[in-house]
Amino acid sequence: MRLDQARGRSGGYQQIFTKGIDRLPAKPCAAAVDRSIVADALPDARTADERGKITDSVNNQFTFWCYVSTGESIISGEAQSGFATEEGWRESYSSRVDGDPVSVSAGEVKVIALDNLASVYIPCTPPRQAEYEVERTHSLVSDVRTIGESRVQGLALRQVLMDFAYQLTKHAYEVGRCKEARDFPDELPRLRTD
Question: Cα–chain-centroid distance for residue 34?
């Protein structure tokens, strides 16, 4: 066998063993997020698996779940409706030990990113709100994290997690049928790397 033939074959093996993410749907997690964001977060792998679903919970609330796994590495998140205030949501991340929080916002969409976690907060009233809950604050909070090895680190990883959480939130907002009419920007502000 000639050397150029051997190279061609090993390239074929490389593609077979590292293109698992490329075989995912264009929008994994029930069309919640772009595959390109997953590819930015997770390293190459032979296989990849994904799931996304919505579940109802008590008090007429809902949760949208999403994960993408390549075996050793995972990016996962959940968007959960509830009664969090923006202040309470911010406080819950201010004392975390996994890095100094970085914040961005786009209108009423608020985002916090830590070293290995991003969270999005937005007002959201579920469609079947009980009469006694009219005066309560209603919100949708998404948390996204990586487990295992990731393709990028530092601010680049924070940006990827924020983008994933934002897309997850937009999707959950729609499928959960939040009452407030809202125009979401195409993307979040970019983190500064200087």
Answer: 10
Predicted TM-score (pTM) of the model is 0.85
Q: What six digits make up the tokens of 174?
A: 């729609």
pLDDT of residue 70: 92
Structure tokens at 97: 């030990």
Contacts of 95 (CB under 8 A, 6+ apart): none
What the block records as the tokens of 111 is 């985002």
d(CA 174, CA 30): 12
Q: Which residues of 158-184 are buried (b: 16+ CB within 10 A; e: fewer)?
A: bbbbbbbbbbbbbbbbebbebeeeeeb
- Terminal-to-terminal C-alpha distance of the chain: 51
pLDDT-derived band at 134, boundaries 50, 70, 90: low
Phi, psi of 63 (to 5 degrees): -135, 135
Distant-in-sequence, close-in-space partners of 64: CB < 8 Å, separation ≥ 6:
32, 52, 53, 54, 78, 79, 80, 168, 171, 172, 175, 176
Write the DSSP symbol of residue 107: T
Dihedral sign for Cα atoms in the order 83, 87, 88, 93? positive
CB 140 within 8 A of CB 81: yes
The whole-number average pLDDT for the span 25-52 is 93
Question: Which token pair is 21?
Answer: 């993410």
